[in-house]
Amino acid sequence: MAAKWLENAVFYEIYPQSFYDSNGDGIGDIPGIIQKLDYVKSLGCNAIWLNPCFDSPFKDAGYDVRDYKLVAPRYGTNRDLVSLFKKAHSMGMKVLLDLVPGHTSEEHPWFRASGSDQINAYTSRYIWTDHPYARGDGMPFIGGEMPRPATYIVNFFKCQPALNYGYREIREPWQQSMDAVGPMETRDAIKDVMRYWL
Questions:
Q1: Total-model pTM
Q2: 128 CB contacts (<8 Å, ≥6 apart)?
Q3: 129 with 147, same domain?
Q4: What angle do CA 31, 33, 37 make, to 5 degrees?
Q5: 32 falls in which pLDDT band (50, 70, 90)?
Q6: Which of 13, 73, 145, 180 could make an S-S bridge to 176, C-beta 3.0–4.6 Å?
Q7: Looking at residue 144, what is its pLDDT?
């Protein structure tokens, strides 16, 4: 069931990088968003959709997340984001974070560990084939870049390895069911990120 406030929600989408630069470095930031909350509210908006603001190498505008629990330094700090939440809430506004749960950056520690040639807790966190020459069952794939002797599936660009949530229909030996350990641990990890920010 949807939250009651959504019935009357009017969203203002903010891409942090280009919204408002509070410190003159040429990049928008979270303190700049805080400074402009009165303006956003004056437009009749009562909710903000904040495009990805997490730590990232920014190969795809922040949609390649390197750390879900850290604000990108170019935008400020975690404390700045909490200040945004508090100020917006005091004005009767909601803030929704764009989580990006389908993939991470290739620089994310989860992916680095998953690409090891040794089995570990992150081995099944991403979608990997079973050998270095396997194709991706119609999905884009990359091979030869990690010690693991396999190819990995990407969602959009090379820098965005796909997280493993399992498959409803198994067609290849490397595909896991949705209730397999790897996909379940991926879901738990993303839920942990949501709990952190909530």
A1: 0.92
A2: 114, 148, 150, 151, 152, 153, 174
A3: yes
A4: 120
A5: very high
A6: 180
A7: 87
The rounded radius of gyration (Å) of the Cα atoms in the chain is: 19
- Residues 195, 108, single domain; the answer is yes
Q: What is the DSSP string of the chain?
A: ---GGGGG--EEEE-HHHH--SSSSSS--HHHHHHTHHHHHHTT--EEEE---EE---SSTT-S-SEEEEE-TTT--HHHHHHHHHHHHHTT-EEEE----SB--TTSHHHHHHTSSS--TTTTSB-B-SSTT---TTS-EEESSSSSSSEEEBSSSTT-BBB---BSS--STT--BTTSHHHHHHHHHHHHHHHHH-
Burial class (CB in 10 A: 0-12, 13-18, 19+), 141: buried
Q: Same domain for 77 and 112?
A: no
Total domains, the chain = 2
Q: Which of 38, 73, 97 is the last residue of a domain?
A: 97
Pairing outcome for strands 141-143 and 11-14: unpaired
